[in-house]
């Protein structure tokens, strides 16, 4: 995917509350968390600050794919699915450190390269 469609960009700008982030472990056991420190990065990636990951970090480092869910103020839900990279240094990490609140540790930046987007049951990308 080269860019987020305009409808998704608008929805992202109009999201409400934390996102929900899902990963799975090597045995297929799902893990779901709320995350509040998340931003767009480039044309097809969302970065989530690893402030308090535990199972999520282990799952990402083991190669888990992921799904991110957010809801808009109009109560429309969007699900973005893709592959993770995990950054403890470099440009993605450095960028995360500029927006992650100083009160949080920001151990690393989990970058979800989005491959599929859904609005409800409708696949957009």
Offer a few descriptive terms.
3 helices, Pnp Oxidase, Chain A, globular, eight-stranded antiparallel sheet, 8 strands, alpha+beta
Commentary on this structure:
It is a single chain. With 125 residues, the chain is α+β, with helices and mostly antiparallel strands. The chain has one domain (6-123): Electron Transport, Fmn-binding Protein, Chain A (Pnp Oxidase, Chain A, Roll). It is 19% helix and 47% strand. It has helices at 6-13, 55-61, 91-99, and strands at residues 15-24, 30-35, 38-41, 45-50, 65-72, 77-87, 108-119, 122-123. It is globular, with a radius of gyration of 14 Å. The protein starts with 5 loop residues before the first helix and ends with a strand. The model has no long low-confidence stretch (mean pLDDT 96).
Over all CA atoms, what is the radius of gyration?
A: 14 Å
How many independent structural domains? 1
How far apart lie the N and C ends? Answer: 8 Å
The appropriate CATH architecture is Roll
List the helices and strands and how they pair.
Layout (H helix, E strand, L loop, with lengths): L5 H8 L1 E10 L5 E6 L2 E4 L3 E6 L4 H7 L3 E8 L4 E11 L3 H9 L8 E12 L2 E2 L2
Antiparallel strand pairs: 1-2, 1-5, 3-4, 4-7, 5-6, 6-7, 7-8
């Amino acid at each position: 995917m080269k860019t987020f469609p305009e409808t998704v960009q608008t929805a992202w700008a109009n999201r409400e509350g934390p996102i929900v982030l899902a990963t799975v472990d090597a045995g297929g056991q799902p893990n779901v968390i709320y995350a509040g420190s998340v931003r767009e990065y480039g044309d097809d990636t969302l970065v989530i600050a690893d402030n308090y990951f535990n199972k999520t970090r282990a799952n990402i480092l083991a190669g888990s794919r992921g799904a991110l869910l957010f809801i808009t103020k109009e109560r429309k839900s969007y699900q973005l699915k893709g592959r993770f990279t995990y950054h403890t240094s470099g440009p993605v990490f450095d960028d995360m450190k500029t927006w992650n609140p100083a009160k949080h540790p920001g151990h690393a930046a989990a970058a979800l390269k989005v491959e599929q987007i859904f609005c409800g049951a409708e696949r957009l990308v």
